[in-house]
Amino acid sequence: MDEVVATFEIRCRRLIDEAGRPLGPLPPTATDQALITRLLEGMLLARAFDRRCVNLQRTGQLGTFATSLGQEAVPVGVAVAMHADDVLVPSYREGAAQIIRGVAIEELLAYWGGDERGHAYANPAVAEDLPVAITVGNQALHAAGVAAAMQHRRQARCAVCVMGDGATSKGDVYEAINVAGAWRLPVVFVVTNNRWAISTPVARQTGAETLAQKGLAGGIAALQADGNDVLAVHDAVGEAVERARSGGGATLVECLTYRVNDHNTADDAGRYRDPAEVEEARRADPIARLIAFSGIDPAPLEAAVGERIEAAVARYLAIVPEPSAAMFGHLHHEIPEPTRWQLRG
Amino acid sequence: MAAAGLNMVEAITCALARALADDPDVLLLGQDIGRKGGVFQATAGLHERFGADRVRDTPLAETMISGLAIGMATQGLRPVAEIQFLGFLYPCLDNLANHASRLRTRTRGRLTCPLVVRTTHGGGVHAPEHHSEAIESMLAHVPGLRTVIPSTPARAYGLLLAAIRDPDPVVFLEPTRLYRATREDVADDGVALPLDRCHVEREGSDLTLVAWGAALYEAREAAATLAVEGISAEIVDVQTIAPFDAATVIASVERTGRCVIVHEGARRAGFGAEIAAEIAERALTSLLAPVERVTGYDTVMPLPRLERAYLPTTERVVEACRRAYLYR
To answer: ipTM of the predicted structure?
Structure first.
């Protein structure tokens, strides 16, 4: 006979619907006006930052850029749920999370504008945060390593890694989940399931019903959250962060959202995606939803965010490029004697 | 304290113990390195002495080991990872080339990656498939990555300490054939040897033999044979493959006028090609004969029954030296 030796389930956390109506009892955070304002402000910042970045890219003042249009609730919910002494290990679509944690907007612009100093982060609050991961999925292992260091030093902190749905097809991500389970590491893997990895829909990415269940395979906690409900993202990630920081081990949080924009400024999603699907997704807009729920007037927040971004853009555009010798200066702690002559040209 | 008569694997254990004792941020990670002491016993006794937290057995996943070490290093730890065989290093190349080697430069010094990946190098021990490779030239092509190969127990001790103390990533390749080949007195004095420096281990006037790792033994035997014939060979042990100390080799070739490079890895784009190019660029007018390379062949490292036919032999080295010496 075959005996049932293990059973599993995946739950999806949803707190408010598309019209902003509560779907059930809400956590105390849902009545915290300061927190809700912060979440809304973060999402407005994300949207305005993206819009400005695309504008800069289209006018030749920024390199290739990937926006977070429509999925702003994920980076914002994640960053606000983290503690200051946690470490963010982002992919390339979490600019809002980086800014909320303390990366200067002009630094992000500098990086996407082609200047390594954009990852130097002058603000000590983000000194340990990792730079964006361009190589999809590698960062899950780096986050596990950061978490292993924290655990090794008996620190009550955690690493929070953000990746896309495509990343979950990579072995790196499975290896990270596996070691996080085996060692009970203080790490949170946030999977932004925006349904599209460039032109590959998630249904062609995996045969699994959910991406969250990939966490179960490695023995860590796993759940889904409505990724367009910033309160649900904040709640689910916050719970995972507290679990990690208190020695309860790792969690995978799959946030269900949608990539409204092209993959990046070098992509044209019209070639592979049904416009009707995009229109449908626009109706689930996370910002409109939070405004409907909270009744907060976004106008003053939008104005402040706009001013902040414009000031940062002005500082970015005034940055003087590094001298060419800078490409040698930080490769090693000091330039090795055998290669020093190359610096002289 | 001098540890008398250590073989290379014991000298490596000795250096690891010293590093663990000296620096609380050093930790070892790898497959079977704990109670088992590693597949070659390089970590024998360290688990008992330093505990499971600092001598960590990992799940069986090489990519994970390299990625985990990077994350740990960004937090200021100094992970020393063991990959059981060089053929199993390939999954780590993504992390080494895309992250470990460039983290410092892509954050302009904000984050650094002081890690060491230890693994084996070369053939000659009748090991199974994928256990006998010599791919140092692949690693040498990655800017920001140091690649070190010791050739004696004492140099393994000193170079490994240097690699662990270096604030940047180092791949430390240990010649499998030398693990238990010879013994020598190793002073366990905690003194590191300099990285990025070739070591002139025998002086000579007629030709320069350049080698590293286990191939140095063929070079030594060849030099002894040649000495009987009245040919005086200088031997340069490269030690740090990258960054490569060309100056020491150039200075030697300027004196001897002839150069024979010996390495186990395949000839095409092997590291010997880089050395020959440096000589061509910087010492052409000193050359009395074409530079010779005695290397593995441009084919897959064969299984043990044919590995002797693949690896450079003393006879091949001697013949190349004679050709160079007699060239007119």
So the answer is: 0.97
Q: pLDDT per residue over A198-209, tens digit each?
A: 999 999 999 999
Q: Is residue A103 domain-resident?
A: yes
CB spacing of A338 vs B247 below 8 angstroms? yes
Q: Are A91 and A98 spatial neighbours (Cβ–Cβ below 8 Å)? A: no
- Would you say B149 and B212 are in contact if contact means Cβ atoms under 8 Å apart? yes
Three-state SS at A331: coil
**Residue of A220, A332, A334, A341 for testing the chain B interface, max B β-carbons within 10 Å:** A332
Domain range for A92? 27-343
The answer to whether B134 touches B268, Cβ cutoff 8 Å, is no
pTM: 0.97
Contacts B246 to A, Cβ<8 Å: 338
- The pLDDT value recorded for residue A129 is 98
Tell me the chain B residues in contact with residue A331 when contact means C-beta distances shorter than 8 Å. 102, 104-105, 143-144
CB B3 within 8 A of CB B32: no
- Our answer to whether residue A121 is catalytic in this structure is no
B112 Cβ under 8 Å from any chain A Cβ: yes
What ranges do the domains of chain B cover? Answer: 2-187, 199-326
The pLDDT, as a whole number, for residue A341 is 86
3-state class (DSSP) for residue A38 = helix
Find the helix or strand (DSSP H, E) in which B265 lies. Answer: strand B259-266
At the topology level, CATH places domain B2-187 in: Rossmann fold (3.40.50)
Q: What is the CATH number of domain B199-326?
A: 3.40.50.920
- The CATH number for A235's domain is 3.40.50.970
A19 located within any domain = no
**Tens-place pLDDT, residues B140-153:** 999 999 999 999 99
**Residues of chain A found within 8 Å of residue B67, distances taken between Cβ atoms:** 138, 140-142, 144-145, 172, 175-176
pLDDT tens column, B218-274: 999 999 999 999 999 999 999 999 999 999 999 999 999 999 999 999 999 999 999
Is residue A272 part of the annotated active site? The answer reads yes
**A208 assigned to some structural domain:** yes
A92 carries an active-site annotation: no
Q: How many domains does chain A have?
A: 1
pLDDT at residue A39 in the model: 98
How would you list the strands of the sheet with B233-237, edge to edge?
A: B199-202, B233-237, B207-211, B259-266, B292-296
A-facing residues of B in 194-213 (CB < 8 A) are: 196
Q: Is B70 on the interface with A (CB under 8 A)?
A: yes
Q: Where are the alpha helices (DSSP H) in A153-285?
A: 171-183, 202-205, 213-217, 230-245, 275-282
Domains B2-187 and B199-326 share a fold: yes
What does the pLDDT read at residue A273? 95
Does B244 reach chain A within 8 Å, measured CB to CB? yes
